[in-house]
Design brief:
Elements (H helix, E strand, L loop, with lengths): L8 E8 L5 H17 L4 E9 L5 E8 L8 H8 L3 H6 L4 E14 L8 E6 L8 H7 L5 E7 L1 H4 L4 H4 L11 E6 L2 H15 L6 E10 L1
Antiparallel strand pairs: 1-3, 1-4, 2-3, 2-8, 4-6, 5-7, 5-8, 6-7
Length: 212
Amino acid sequence: MSAPHLSPGLLAVWNDIAAEDEAEFNTWYVEEHVPERLGIPGILSARRYRDAAAPQSYAAIYDTASLAALTAPVYLERLANPTPRTRAIMPRFRNMTRAACEIAADCGALRAPGAVLATIELRAAPGDAALAVLEAHAAAGRVRLAIPDAKATQVPNPEAKMRGAPDRLPAPFVLVEGHDEDAVRDAAARIARALGAARPERVFRLILARGA
């Protein structure tokens, strides 16, 4: 029997929320959802971000020991049994994008949470030459290539059924983190041009970091 694949993973979530629901949404995330997810073995950290250009747009990134953490029975049990507060807020999520991913490349020295995050959705999985592009821009702090796994993302998920529209699965994407917003924006723009972005890069500012 071959050894299990243990590449690092992450769960990425983007969504919008109406202004009138924002306070409840943020309180739920801080008081319940983040602590709950960090209690699941293999989920190492949680970071939340607000879109720099759209105040009611958010991103959440959960680093995992491997993709397997997002298909493990303990995680599936949590998805199958949403709390009353989760049931109340999930139907109000808008424009939900969600992806369980493997990390195909991780460049740069930064490991603490960066104050700024840029995300670049690509048109397709990049070729081998992409690593050199990512390494060339890692001075911004940290650059990672995430490859969404459709099977892991689409495990039975009663939480998703509570949302008003199906979650969107993104193409492979790049995460650029750092503390200097100008440097992050510049690196993201250069990577987007070099690798072929499916849409303009988005820039987010850190609002919460928990865990490793």
